[in-house]
Structures are given as C-alpha cells and as structure tokens.
Amino acid sequence: MAKRNYSRFTDLVWTVTEEGIFKDDLSFEFHSFVLIISGEMKVIQAERTYIFGADSMLLFPRNQISTVIKQPMNNLPYQAVVFGLTVDKLKAFYANERPNLTAPPDSSVRILNKQPLLESFFASVIPYLNLEQPLPEKIAELKLYEAISILRSIEPDIDSVLSDFSEPGKINLVDFMEKHFKFNMPLEKFAYLTGRSLSTFIRDFKKAFKITPQRWLTIKRLELAHFQLSKKEKKATEIYLETGFENLSHFSFAFKKHFGYPPSEILGKLT
User: Fold this and answer.
1) How confident is the model at residue 4 (pLDDT cuts 50, 70, 90)?
2) Superfamily assignment of 173-270 in CATH?
3) Cα–Cα distance between 126 and 225 in angstroms, integer?
4) How large is the average pLDDT for residues 123-149?
5) CATH code, 2-162
6) Would you list the domain boundaries of the chain?
7) Model pTM score
C-alpha cells in the first residue's frame, strides 16, 4: 500500500513511499517535479517507456496518460519527493514573467541531469513535511518561484510547457483510444482528454466502434495480452499490469472467460 505523506501546512510538496510493487494509471492536472530517492519507477506511455532509478530527477507534464509501476530496489522501498506545479500557481508566476516561447509545447517526460541547483532545491523542501507550524505564505511562494526559475535555467524551452494553460481540445477519438486503450482510466478522464463531455464521448464512441467503451476496452486489453503471451512468450505475471489489469486473478478470470482457457495454457493451444 502506498504511503503518501503530505505536509499539513503546504500543498506544494509531498513524499510517496511504496513497500511493494504498486501500479497506477494516471493523468495529473498539474506538472510534477520529482526526485526519486530510492527504488524504481517504470513509466509506460502510448509511444514510449521510461525506467527511473534512485537519484533520478524529472518533470512529469500534466494531462499525460501513463501507467506507473513503482517497486523497491536493492532492499530499499520506492520513495520519491514530489513538488506540484499547478496551473493556478503557474498563471500567477507568468503574470509577471514573459515566457520564452521559441519552441512548440513538448508533452514528453523531461529527464533532468543531476546538478547542484536541483539537488539543493529538493534538499530544501523535504523538511517541510515535518513542520510543526504553518509554512509562511511568502516562503511557499518563494519556493515555487525557485522551482520554476531552476527549470527555466536548465531547460531553456520549458516555458512552452509550463506556460501552456490550454485545456484539451476535441480530437480524433478513434486515434486516441487506439493508442491509449491499455491505460485503466475512468471514462470521464478519456472524455476530458479527447475534448468531450462524458455523454458526448460515449455517444461518439458507440458511433465509431459499434460497442460500449467498457466492452471495447476489455477486449482490446485481452487481445494485447494474448499477443504478448503467444508471440512474445511472456508470462502472465509479466504483462497483466501493463495491459490494463489491476491484479493477476482478475486478469486470469477475464482471459479464460473471453478465450475459453487460462493464460497458463496458451502455449499448449499453439503447439
């Protein structure tokens, strides 16, 4: 079970600790500025997979659907410090700072090279979790400006990401779902990221696929799992999390119900 330790006096920073393997499909509405202290985090997106170990520093852009798998490593739990950059806070910053928009917005995960500016910043925010009195508002504001200023200093084109406050517009639903079906997100989130209300999303989905979203998602995930097991010769324990299932027993049950035999018998069916 994840332990998320939030400071009682600031919503800027928190730690995340995982004693075992933990998987989540997510799409945050804020940018996450992250230091991994120990353990390993695997980030799976539609077109790329990242693996981050201890001492990794990264910026995780908002509104990006990802499967995140965290696990202990070298007898240490997964532990990370996260600094949240919300739209409201960034709007306040850029109200007084002119953004450098020389590059188009880039929604990929930013892998940050280790350097003193980053190390000193994270070292300074960790103690906030143990505060016994409110963090003065001015200090919180200064730390926010410090974080943004550091990112702007080491990533010259970062303004195109941080100062982009646009909401997702209406996009091609079929293309989006074909790329993101393996991510176990609520339908409301799929609707938002395709620029639709939930009712419009369901209507457009049925029109395009001739089936309900829930049924289509299950079938697509099972077909992907079957491919991984039969063609890639992987084990069920290796692929169930990455194909959109929350636990192995549910995956095995759904697989047998759909195909008529359990994942463990797939190789026998092919010989």
Assistant:
1) low
2) Homeodomain-like (1.10.10.60)
3) 40
4) 85
5) 2.60.120.810
6) 2-162, 173-270
7) 0.82
